[in-house]
Amino acid sequence: MEFTTLGRSDLRVSKICLGTMTFGEQVDEAGSQALLDHAVARGINFIDTAEMYPVPARAATFAQTEAIIGRWLAARPGLRSRLVLATKVAGPSRGYDWIRQGSPDLSAADIVQACEDSLRRLQTDVIDLYQIHWPARHVPMFGGVYFEPAKDQAVTPMLAQLEALDRLVRAGKLRQVGLSNETAYGVSEFVHLAERHGLARIVSVQNPYSLVNRVLENGLDEALYRHQVGLLAYSPLGFGVLTGKYDALRLDDPARPGRLSLFESMKKQRWARPETLAAAKRYNALARAHDLTPTQLALAWCGSRWQTASTIIGVTTRAQLDENIEAFAASLAPELVAEINRIRWELRDPAQ
User: Fold this and answer.
1) Do residues 72 and 85 touch, judged by C-beta distance below 8 A?
2) Which part of the chain is the NADP-dependent oxidoreductase domain (predicted)?
3) Could you tell me the CATH number of the domain that includes residue 129?
4) 157 burial via Cβ count (<10 Å: 0-12, 13-18, 19+)
5) Count of structural domains within the chain
6) Residue tagged active-site, from 53, 96, 209, 234
């Protein structure tokens, strides 16, 4: 397993991170803990979760993933010190009225309380990386394409949020802080505020990055490079469309169910757009033409990009976990990368 240092921090993380959004929904507690054990045995030391997991978000399952991980850690004394544990505080309500009563904001007090709750569920004294899951201000995200000034509204300033995070760092409850689903402006502003006011500096941004969504290359990657902030690439398999399992199936076909087939809400997401499915089929066919599986092409590509610090993988079985880990070892010839870029030039980023 390869390791890297995250941003300007002292966090030494595996280049593969185990994402846990399926734990407590598609995977039961016993299965989740077995996957965590196997990931650690394979050399992964980086575990990512969130207070709103599992996904799709539901009031009945809110925060169950953190609780599962907490019980797993409690049953394995001595393991916690070997891991880098990351979690996230949910941003303003996106229809989730069971999270902070559906607040349209994320205040400093919200951040502090959410951190305390996550520490309790995770059964740990410190969270290694604490991330704001999505911005409080209006930005195009989760399938949004355009910034719309008319949708802007007064929310807790970034400085107040950063001050809350900094207090938690100084109290020893957090080691490092990061962002998620952010823009180049957001990254730069958080960095500048930290430097101007002597506050905790963000070390990472968790954003989508895959063959069907390379939008971060349109300026965000420069901000990450200039500010020395590490990218945690999520959905490198595009919610499964880059594994090939949807190539010959309708999303309502129960023959090989995945998240896009199982959950009605996900059939409306960017990953299920006709354009995304069509682009995925092109990349999947390209992989096979070069004697690779679609999974190998997608993960090897994401993991080898200079933009990527660590790639987050999400699985439901041990076989998927092994397949994903081994896929990163695939070698992509320069002519294959050139073909990938030609498809991207033609189809752009359908899962933006």
Assistant:
1) no
2) 15-343
3) 3.20.20.100
4) middle
5) 1
6) 53
